[in-house]
Each structure stands twice: as C-alpha cells, then as structure tokens.
Write a sequence for this structure.
C-alpha cells in the first residue's frame, strides 16, 4: 500500500454530500447497532457522528429510527448469527414502511460468503459496506436514496492491499469521560484461526501526530480513560514505535489514564513494559493473549512464539510492574488439541497467575487454515475444557484479589451499576464497588474491605 491516507479533498467532498442530504433527513432518526470488539464500537461512534453530519438525530431505540445500520463482527460464528438475527428483526418494519433504510457493515460484511447470504436471504437490507468505507457513509446513503436497487460498497482488492485511513470526519462519543482512539488497523500475523487480516486488511498505522493530537484534545476536554486501539498495537509504525507513542499520549498534564488493546506477545517489547512501569498516566493493566499453553498448538496457530517465550515475557512484566493486572485470551478445543496440550495450558495459567482470562471455545472461520485442519475437537470435549479452565481461573483471580484488602485504590467512577451500587474501575481495570455515589468520570480513593474473583468492594476514604 503506497498511500493509505484518504485525501482531505475527498473528506470535504463527503462532508458536502452530507449537507446535501439534510432536506431528506430532516426530522428523521438514525440508530447504529454494534456487535463485536472495541474497534467496532469506535467505528460505530464514527458512523454516528457522520449520520449527525448528514442531518439525522441519533437514537438508541431502533423502533424510532428510519435509518438503521448494523455493525457486525466475524470473530466467532455466534457473533455472526446474532447480527443476522438482528437484521431479521427488521423484515416486518421494512414491509410496513418502505422509507426505512437498513444498512449492514463491519467484518461480517467483508466476507463474500456472508454477503451472498445477505443478498439472497435478506433482500430488505438496502446497503452493505466494508470495514474501510466508513468515511464514505454520506455517499453510500445518497446512493441508496437515489438507487432502486441495493447498494454495495465493498472493496474487491485482496487482503494484502485494501484498507484506508481517513482523518477529519466527526465522531459522536458515547461517553463523556471514556474514549477509544484507534492507532492502527488490520493485521499481518495470519493466525490460522482468525479472519481479521481478511476482514480488516493488512496493517496500516495512523500518523503519530494525529493520534497524539486526538489524545491531547480528549484530555483537555476532560476525558479520564483513553484506550489506544489496534489489532496488534505493538506493530504500530506511524512515525515512532508503540512504546514511544504510548509514552507521548500519557505525557499531558492532568489526572487521566491511557490503556491499550491488544498486544501480540511476539512484539511486546521490554521498552513497552518500561513505559507502563514508569509513566503514572499509563494504566497498570496488560492484556497479553496467549491462546494456548502448548508450544505444539501455538505453532499450529501460527502465533510465532512458544510457551517458554511467552512465560519469559509474562514474568518480565510481573517483575517490573508488581501491581500489574495481567489478562489474556485462551482458545479451548483448537483442532488436534490433546489432553496433554490442554494440561500445558492449565499449568501455564497457574504459573503466570492471570487476573482474568477471556476463554473461548474454538469456532471454525470460513477461509482460515484451521477450519480445514483434521482433528476438529468434539463440542462436549471443548465445553469440558472450557469449564475446567474457568473454574481454576475463578480460584486464581480470587487469590490474586486478596492482596488488595486493606489497600486504598484510586478509582475512576462509572456512577452506579444496574443494581444501583456505586462502582468504578481501578488502574488495573478491576471493577470496584463502594459505599457513596461519586459522579461518573470523577476519581475517588477507595479502601478495599472485601473481594470476589472479579470485583473489589470498599469504602470511600
């Protein structure tokens, strides 16, 4: 990819198209429904901002909306089924009101077999667009209004070259104190179970000055929790390495935290660990997906590190940052995974002592190498391994949290939870509940009195 940036002239063209839509959209509401990861959430915030630019009023209630966009995920089959089910809910509304527009985008839309299914079985979906077309939303909407046929804005370029970066389109953030900031898009790793390189293209990085300026603006506007996003942030290459970018984003005056998602272990440098350890504004939480504790399985996954290399990196993090919360992802039931392989995973989890594990049962993805492998694991075996790992992790997490009893933590309030209990997050990203209501977005000192496996309970100091 020689030029991964959209020219500003094209951004201005899209803004002019957005203005031209106002006579059509005036008084109408739009809704964006999101499935999937933090990157999808950020994409939805961007689309909401562009929809406002086009003249729509944003609503969370799809029943009130005449423009509905479903932002899909393809990381697991369950996510795809949920998105398709959501699309199916609008068939009746579309039949009763032909003025309603329904769009579908995101990683699932980027897959040809799913697009064919949508074209065949969901004729009431008016337009489909890919993961690199968000900036063209005004043009997509205009084309949909003018065309009597469904509209498709999907690149036909191969995975090794598609993907663009646009700067300057508006964003409508869901929170007034937490923000997502993408630093890069796509992935070059081609793990054998993963569709990301096919759904989001190859790696391309935003310019460091644009990222730093966005973070600075957020801090100046009072944002307290900022997460830098990328499929593999450690591969960032937008004018500096990721460690320097993180340090720069955490260098502004004021009390705030900078987090990041997600790291690939093969690229997690000692320099990055040092930045986390030494910069007070960098959250003391490191999400380092291992996926398996078996070197044999890791090789089949094309993870490009082995068990020993991962353990060395995890131990370095624990040694340099004693108060770090270390979390990970693990896949149960990857093709050919034996009981010995699974035992290796269990022992690695015990050795590292993760504060939390996001455990998934292997889900075959069309087009990936792993989906074609012999030795697919029966569901009952995968389910049993999932339960065993989860049960063990509950005990580990409970034990790790015991060390916080009696300590006072600086907690960023999220207001109250669904049960009306005051709550927030520590720098380790642990859920903390407390005894007095603190406005969302404000910090409080909380002395921890009791703990559970995944929450700490205390009182305002």
């Amino acid at each position: 990819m020689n030029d991964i940036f959209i020219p500003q002239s094209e951004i201005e063209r899209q803004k002019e198209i957005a203005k031209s839509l106002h006579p059509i959209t005036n008084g109408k509401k739009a809704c964006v429904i999101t499935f999937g990861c933090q990157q999808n959430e950020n994409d939805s915030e961007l689309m909401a901002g562009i929809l406002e630019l086009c003249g729509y009023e944003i609503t969370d209630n799809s029943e009130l909306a005449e423009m509905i966009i479903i932002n899909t995920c393809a990381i697991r089959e369950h996510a795809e089924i949920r998105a398709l089910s959501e699309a199916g809910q609008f068939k009746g509304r579309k039949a009763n009101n032909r003025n309603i527009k329904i769009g579908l985008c995101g990683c699932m839309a980027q897959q040809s077999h799913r697009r064919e299914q949508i074209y065949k079985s969901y004729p009431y979906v008016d337009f489909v667009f890919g993961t690199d077309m968000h900036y063209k939303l005004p043009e997509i909407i205009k084309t949909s209004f003018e065309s009597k046929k469904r509209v498709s804005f999907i690149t036909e370029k191969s995975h090794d070259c598609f993907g663009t970066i646009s700067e300057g389109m508006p964003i409508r953030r869901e929170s007034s104190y937490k923000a997502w900031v993408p630093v890069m898009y796509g992935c070059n790793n081609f793990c054998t179970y993963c569709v990301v390189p096919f759904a989001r293209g190859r790696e391309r990085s935003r310019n460091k000055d644009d990222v730093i300026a966005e973070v600075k603006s957020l801090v100046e506007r009072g944002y307290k929790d900022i997460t830098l996003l990328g499929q593999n942030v450690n591969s960032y290459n937008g004018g500096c390495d990721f460690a320097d970018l993180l340090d720069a984003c955490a260098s502004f005056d004021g009390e705030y935290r900078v987090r990041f998602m997600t790291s690939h272990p093969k690229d997690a440098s000692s320099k990055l660990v040092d930045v986390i350890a030494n910069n007070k504004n960098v959250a003391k939480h490191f999400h380092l997906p291992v996926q398996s504790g078996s070197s044999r399985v890791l090789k089949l996954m094309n993870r490009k590190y082995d068990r020993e290399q991962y353990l060395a990196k995890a131990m370095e993090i624990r040694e340099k940052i004693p108060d770090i919360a270390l979390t990970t992802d693990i896949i149960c039931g990857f093709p050919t995974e034996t009981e010995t392989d699974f035992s290796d995973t269990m022992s690695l989890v015990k050795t590292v002592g993760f504060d939390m594990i996001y455990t998934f049962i292997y889900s075959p993805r069309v087009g990936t190498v792993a989906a074609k492998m012999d030795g697919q694991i029966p569901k009952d075996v995968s389910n049993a391994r999932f339960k065993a790992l989860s049960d063990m992790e509950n005990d580990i997490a409970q034990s790790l949290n015991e060390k916080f009893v009696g300590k006072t933590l600086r907690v960023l309030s999220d207001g109250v939870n669904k049960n009306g209990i005051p709550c927030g997050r520590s720098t380790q990203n642990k859920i903390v509940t407390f005894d007095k209501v603190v406005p969302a977005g404000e910090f409080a000192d909380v002395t921890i009195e009791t703990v559970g496996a995944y929450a700490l309970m205390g009182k305002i100091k």
Remarks:
- The radius of gyration is 23 Å.
- The chain has 15 helices and 19 strands.
- The longest helix spans residues 379-401.
- Residues 39 and 272 are 22 Å apart (CA to CA).
